[in-house]
Amino acid sequence: MTTTFTNARLIDPEAGTEEIGSLTIEDGVIIGVNADEQGVIIDCGGKCLAPGIVDIGVKIGEPGERHKESFRSAGLAAAAGGVTTMIIRPDTTPSVDTPETLAFVARRASQAAPVNVHSMAALTKGREGREMVEMGFLLDAGAVAFTDCDHVVTDNKVFARAMTYARSLGALIIGHPQDPNMSKSAAVTSGKFASLRGLPAVSPMAERMGLERDLALVEMTGVAYHADNLSTAHALPALERAKAAGLDVTAGVNIHHLTLNELDVGDYRTFFKLKPPLRSEDDRLAMADAVARGVIDIISSMHTPQDEESKRLPFEEAASGAVALETLLPAAMRLVHAGLIDLPTLWRALSLNPARRFGLPGGELVQGAPADLVLFDPDTPFVLDRFKLNSKSKNTPFDGARMEGRVLGTWVGGERVFGGDDA
Q1: How far from the centroid of its chain's Cα atoms is residue 362's Cα?
Q2: What is the CATH number of domain 52-363+379-402?
Q3: What's the number of CA atoms in the CB half-sphere (13 Å) around residue 353?
Q4: Is the Cα dihedral 181, 186, 189, 194 positive or negative?
């Protein structure tokens, strides 16, 4: 079926433009921009039409923790949040470290999720940092990258060998820059606030130390490397030097570290306990500026569902992480409304850059690109009710917060997976 979106505010991250126009799709791909209207007409009423979000680092509870999140619940949450592609993490139980486990994940995703799903695989067996996985077999089975997530590989020789092998295969390594010895058992970022609250803390320098180590190994091996979740201004100079030196390096930031700071923890509110912990306001602004300048390439949700039992604990004992598939877009609108970033630049970090980094189609509004689209109103205000989220787990720091930006419709391969009949 042919569909034309008219009177749409087209957000083109590659051209860096936003302008009123039309978009025509057919058989799951874009066939024309500002061309003659054809087929079913959807009047967008001047609302924003952009490439669907490509979200990196989504945690799914299958296998092992399906009570926290399933492919179906995460897929519904993604569609409601304008996310058309999820790139999921391998930190499941058991880890995604064999072709058989990866095949199970792919099968479950295709059966249950209404959006595109691609999986990363573990870098070492069991994410234990001792023996690397069979990368070649996992690549053949569909793995798009390799990572041990927050289980940092501390043995430099093991990490270097894995990087060298990945380089020979053309595989992407995802790192979690952090010195694990310094950050062990830490709940917040060190400083006056942490001292006043009496909470175990970690210095922001732990992130810089971890990144410097990783970048040295990248320089030695020549591997393609992505730092998954930078959060401090201290890490940015090292990243900029690596890019200036021509290393194949990119970096991402969590939406929570762009919109919240360490003071939001308040009176030990565990829904604000994240990994890495929330940083200072200066760090938050530095991260937003880095995205605007292109130093930070990707914004992700780092969607991490946790059940009530693991969050309703003393702050030090509570699990880290927050759900964010449905709150990613409205939270990102805070950056736009604050004048820190414009919509095309934001969508470059949310859609175009992650698609390109992982070698996936999408992120573009050009002829021949997939018809993975999100229609949204960037200005509609609402108060978030966590119990209305599609995720099984409801651990969002934005519960009760006033937000702006509502998804009106989501299309994957030209098929509408969220929203009513009318735009």
Answers
A1: 15
A2: 3.20.20.140
A3: 23
A4: negative
Beta-bridged to residue 225, according to DSSP, are 173, 249
Instruction: Check: pTM over 0.70? Answer yes or no.
Output: yes
Q: Any idea where the domains of the chain sit in the sequence?
A: 52-363+379-402
Residue 404: CB atoms within 10 A of its CB come to 16
Residue with tokens 């702050």: 315
Both tokens of 50, joined, read: 């952009």
Burial environment of residue 363 by CB neighbours within 10 A (0 to 12, 13 to 18, 19 or more): buried
> Quick check: 118 and 78 in contact, CB under 8 A?
no
Cβ atoms of 100 and 68 within 8 Å: the answer is no
Structure tokens at 85: 């592609």
- Residue 385 is encoded by which pair of tokens? 């009710």
* Separation CA 25–CA 23 (nearest Å): 7
Backbone angles phi, psi at 290, to 5 degrees: -65, -35
Q: How many angstroms separate the CA atoms of 120 and 131, rounded?
A: 17
Q: Map residue 26 onto helix, strand or coil.
A: strand
User: CA distances (Å), 164 to each of 122, 132, 133, 220, 371, in order?
Assistant: 16, 11, 13, 9, 37
Residue 420 backbone dihedrals phi, psi, to 5 degrees: -80, -170
How many helices (DSSP H) and strands (DSSP E) are in the chain?
14, 17
Residue 304, class by beta-carbon neighbours within 10 Å (0-12 exposed, 13-18 middle, 19+ buried)? buried
Q: pLDDT means per 10 residues in the chain (423 residues)?
A: 96 97 97 94 97 97 96 98 98 97 97 98 98 98 98 97 98 97 94 92 97 98 98 98 98 98 94 97 98 98 97 96 98 98 98 98 96 98 97 98 97 94 47
Q: Which residues of 134-161 are buried (b: 16+ CB within 10 A; e: fewer)?
A: ebeebbebebbbbbbbbbbbeeeebbbe
Q: How far is residue 351 CA from its own chain's centroid?
A: 10
Spatial distance between the Cα atoms of 133 and 63, rounded to a whole number of angstroms = 18
Strands 17-26 and 29-33, bridge-based pairing: antiparallel
Q: Which candidate, 82, 29, 123, 97, places its Cα nearest to that of 332?
A: 82
Distance CA 276, CA 57 (A): 14
Element of type H or E holding 49: strand 48-51
The answer to whether 22 and 5 have CB atoms below 8 angstroms apart is yes
Give the residue among 138, 137, 141, 132 at the shortest CA–CA distance from 164: 132
Which residues lie across from 86 on neighbouring strands? 55, 117
